[in-house]
Amino acid sequence: MTAPPNGAVAGFSDTAENYAASMAPSLAVVAAEVVRRAALQPGERVLDLGTGTGAGAALALGDGRLLTGVDGAAGMLEIARRTVPEATFVEADYAELPFADASFEVAMAVHSLHFAADPVAVLGEW
């Protein structure tokens, strides 16, 4: 497995509300910079990997873009779906994506790659 161990994913799910209240606000500047550097274009299909509470997905919306966020933590996705209803959120291991190759024009990750047990393998999947 190249994504975070199941225990880590369960931990994020169980503490999602606390994460949303404490960590997510402090990462807002990082999310904004990731979205800025992505240089998104109108109408693109964007995949937000390790979306968590959906902060990056929320910032990437607009101009007809279709946003899909992927996260293994159900608790995080509950928050993302509630706060970013315009996006689609999928519960999945970001190291084994449930999408066909080239399903998205843009893949972005705000705060997730460093949790991968094998970041190089995960980047290969992305």
Q: What's the end-to-end separation, in Å?
A: 15 Å
Order of secondary-structure elements:
HHHEHEHEEH
Low-confidence parts: none
Major sheet size, sense and barrel closure: 4 strands, parallel
Largest beta sheet: what is the strand line-up? 3-2-1-4
What structural class do the secondary elements suggest? Answer: alpha/beta
Oligomer: single chain
Q: What characteristics describe this protein?
A:
alpha/beta, 126 residues, 6 helices, single chain, 4 strands, four-stranded parallel β-sheet
What does this structure look like?
By secondary structure, the chain is α/β, with parallel strands linked by helices. Helix content is 43%, strand content 14%. The protein has helices spanning 6-14, 16-26, 28-38, 55-60, 74-83, 119-125; strands at residues 45-49, 66-71, 88-91, 106-108. It has a four-stranded parallel sheet with strand order 3-2-1-4. It is globular. The protein starts with 5 loop residues before the first helix and ends with a helix.
Layout of helices and strands, plus pairs?
Layout: H1 6-14, H2 16-26, H3 28-38, E1 45-49, H4 55-60, E2 66-71, H5 74-83, E3 88-91, E4 106-108, H6 119-125
Parallel strand pairs: 1-2, 1-4, 2-3
How would you summarize this macromolecular structure in one to three sentences?
This protein has 126 residues and is an alpha/beta fold. 43% of the residues lie in helices and 14% in strands. The longest helix has 11 residues, at 16-26.
